[in-house]
Design goal:
Blueprint (H helix, E strand, L loop, with lengths): L3 E4 L18 H8 L5 E4 L1 H4 L4 H9 L6 E5 L2 H6 L6 H11 L6 E7 L9 H10 L6 E4 L4 H4 L1 H14 L2 E2 L1 E3 L11 H9 L15 E5 L16 H5 L1 H12 L5 E5 L6 H15 L19
Parallel strand pairs: 1-2, 1-9, 2-3, 3-4, 4-5, 5-6, 7-8, 8-9
Helix pairs in contact: 6-8, 11-12
Length: 293
């Protein structure tokens, strides 16, 4: 059994020299990240489509079973709201084609205004995605979480094409008032929605955002860092999915993401303690040259 875990990015200034080697040329940064995690969110593709050469370099730096969750460009999801996007989608897929099986899923993140009245548009779009490409859809309209009728309707649209419903869990982020600048910014930008942990397919996707680690005063009652204390629901859920034969992918976030790499591996360790035989993650590359002592 194998669990895929990752972060929101593969390069972060706070990791350089402490968790990842520094300096690193751009074409080696993903390779170093991939020694820590076996998946990554492709957030950058929302803002700018990479060149085919860049996508090829990503493939060169990762193993064939490394997972990219590629966010569709904002022109497709936010500006055109999935309507009249065949050409844009085809161009995007052509560019990322060098990644091959590493494209675990196309991440269809929709704006909060995309609601029940837009389900027909979503259904039509998903039916136009080439067969063989997996989709995971992230919705933020409250009706899908608060009204069982619309929850069932959305599940029906997704089930019809074998698409997953991305679980974006911010409940622990909003469990206590923000205590850092990054947490205050996250409170302004992240959706405050109920936790949803129902898998529709064999490939569930979880995006979990916790809290920043600020010091001893932020530890939980049992001495656990607040993000790790908050994800216990997910270690149990993911362990159950693995026992059922599912292949989950879990992304760990904090508002400042300074500890996200370490937290992703700690999450994997937590699931491993519940699921004997889970395949281990690779050994991280050393941050500096070896020494004699």
């Amino acid at each position: 059994m194998k669990l895929h875990v990752g972060c929101a990015m593969w390069t972060h200034a706070a990791w350089q020299g402490s968790l990842l080697p520094h300096p690193l040329p751009p074409r080696e940064r993903l390779r170093a990240y991939a020694s820590w995690c076996n998946a990554v969110e492709g957030n950058t593709t929302f803002y700018a489509t990479p060149s085919a050469a860049t996508a090829a370099s990503w493939a060169e730096q990762t193993a064939p079973d490394f997972r990219f969750l590629l966010k569709l460009p904002k022109q497709i999801t936010h500006e055109r709201r999935l309507a009249d996007t065949d050409g844009l989608l085809r161009s995007f897929l052509d560019v990322v084609e060098p990644l091959g099986p590493r494209v675990h899923a196309l991440w269809v993140q929709l704006p909060a205004s995309f609601g029940p009245s837009d389900l027909g548009t979503l259904a039509a779009f998903l039916h136009r995605v080439p067969r063989g490409l997996r989709c995971t859809v992230e919705v933020r309209h409250p009706a899908f979480f608060e009204d069982p009728r619309w929850e069932r309707r959305l599940e029906g649209v997704l089930n019809d094409v074998g698409a997953e419903w991305t679980s974006f869990d911010t409940t622990d982020l909003f469990a206590a008032p923000p205590s850092s600048a990054a947490e205050r910014e996250a409170w302004q930008k992240k959706p405050r929605l109920p936790r949803r942990s129902r898998a529709l397919t064999e490939h569930p996707v979880v995006r979990y955002i916790g809290r920043d680690e600020l010091g001893q005063e932020q530890l939980g009652r049992d001495g656990a860092q607040p993000t790790a204390a908050g994800w216990r629901h997910w270690t149990g859920t993911v362990a159950d999915w693995l026992r059922e034969g599912r292949s989950p992918t879990v992304f760990l976030h904090t508002p400042d993401n300074e500890q996200a790499l370490s937290l992703a591996r700690r999450f994997h360790d937590g699931v491993s303690s519940l699921v004997p035989g889970l395949e281990p993650l690779p050994e991280p590359v050393p941050t500096g040259p070896p020494t004699l002592f």
